[in-house]
Amino acid sequence: MSRDHVQSAPNGSAEAAYLELLARDASPEAYEQPVLLARAEGRPADRIAALERAKRLALRVRAELEGRRRREAELSALFETAHDLAGLRDLDAVLQAIVQRARSLLGTDVAYLTLNDPARGDTYMRVTEGSVSARFQQLRLGMGEGLGGLVAQTTRPYVTADYFKDARFQHTLTIDAGVRDEGLVAILGVPLMLGPHVIGVLFAADRRERVFERAQIALLGSFAALAAAAIDTAHLLTETRAALAGLERANEIIRDRSAVIERASDVHDRLAELVLHGGGVHDVAAAVSQVLDGTVEFTEAEAAPAEALEASRAEGHAVRLGSDWIAAVAAGGELLGALVLRGHPGLDPVDQRTLERAAMVTSLLQLARRSAAEAEQRVRGELLDDLLDARDRDPRLLRERAARLDADLDATHVVLAARLDGPAADAEEEAAARRRLWSAASHLAATRQGLAAARDGGTVLLLPLTAGDTATEVARRTARHLGTAVHQPVTVGASAPVTDLTVHPEAVAAAYAEGRRCLEALHLLGRAGDGAAAEDFGFLGLLLAGDRDVAGFVDRTIGPVMSYDERRGTELLHTLDAYFACGMSPARTKDALHVHVNTVAQRLERVGQLLGEDWQTPARALEIQLALKLHRLAAPDRH
Asked: Distance between CA 258 and CA 264 in Å, rounded?
């Protein structure tokens, strides 16, 4: 950024300089220049502080854009590889492309793929990318040796930050010599699976120590699945050609098989085009239905036949169930659903592979949709976190951020504190349950034009309050909705309604504290899985509420009696005072008031009509006495 550009920023907004940097995709170091220059020029402290805030926000936006570009690059590479499979002609070319893309996206020095050789009982290098050592490129490994042997044995990914210091796998002179000759240090290996069998291992490696992130491991696993599919398809094509060569009607069968393969290639091209143009899982099902001349439906995992779905996931193939075929839609071991072909018992093997490829494309679409949803959830959570943690936010900036999320911070809202109440077998299960709660709360907030964030072992929501609704009703509905979504009780405490959040963002933190107090009160009262606000707890609500609404409590408790006295000129409040002061004895009360006992009885009967028949129960009597005392304390201010 030139000095002229930096000097122009003080005459504009604090964000102008950083918007230009974002537009130019400048390096992170360039974001320090406006602040440094402002300090060098002796700009006011508030100007420098504004630049600091704008810098932090710009860097956050830059990081989010970088993350999205990275995810787009990953999905594009996976889609390109899936397209390669659709028109598979040269297995070596497809495997080389997979290894090249894996190395590029993971940013490693080397990537390579090994395959098992059942005839010789060992493993050999099939494809390498970035390798410089001839010895390494020609390695043959005994079964079970090295990191690859551990991956093949356990059928799980393994990663080592320092190969030669890792004792988890079997070191051999041959393997160690090859790895040392190549100069590799950090190695990640994931299995190539055909059904339950490991046919090879896909590796990514660096010549320095490195920690591979979970997302990188999952990405390499996706490439490994595509490589296994390419090998499987190549084997299928080879077997088909061998079978055709031995038949007398070779030409006729070849023409027929070619037509089927062309049809499969056509559907793969159509699926790839559909994905690149933003189609959804139901569009994929519709396209495959046309090609297979049957009805194909996408079904959620819970609604699919469990045994057939699990068999399809384990074998990596579509499974026949009666006259239907089930193809599992899975990613990284997680079942996302199934493609079900209805009423088609006689399915050609290539058509079966077409259904399986469609299931693979569907899993990619599901992952892309989930990534987009999680990105939006994170943005909503960040805005709510800022409202909860910071008090000096720019109202205009808050409104703009909320508007991009279809939320209106000028509306009346309720802050809700939600927490799970079901037992957890261990810490891992509890963490998974919390993630489900956060996901369900984020979805609810998105559909209600609100915000949600994970906090304090639970979830906090900021939801708009519609006309005629109350905080209590919102809390109870939310508890029911979240409990149904996560399949276990969820307790929800609500704040009183809050307004003007852009002008008074600190009100969100205070309201959240009130919601948490209501949540704890529900637990203490044994009302797990319920929802409530401070107004539901009687005089306890005075302790729970953030604003200590004394007048509201008095009005809710003895308001009908107060109104009756004002309209009729009676002395029911005075009689109540005397009645409780005399130990709830009508005889002593008539002496204190100097009236007949029948008069006392008539007045108390009127009180019962106004407050309800249970007004003398211990709990109600305690609330009424407290309300009477608060009314007397406030009386001087009313005259």
From this structure: 10
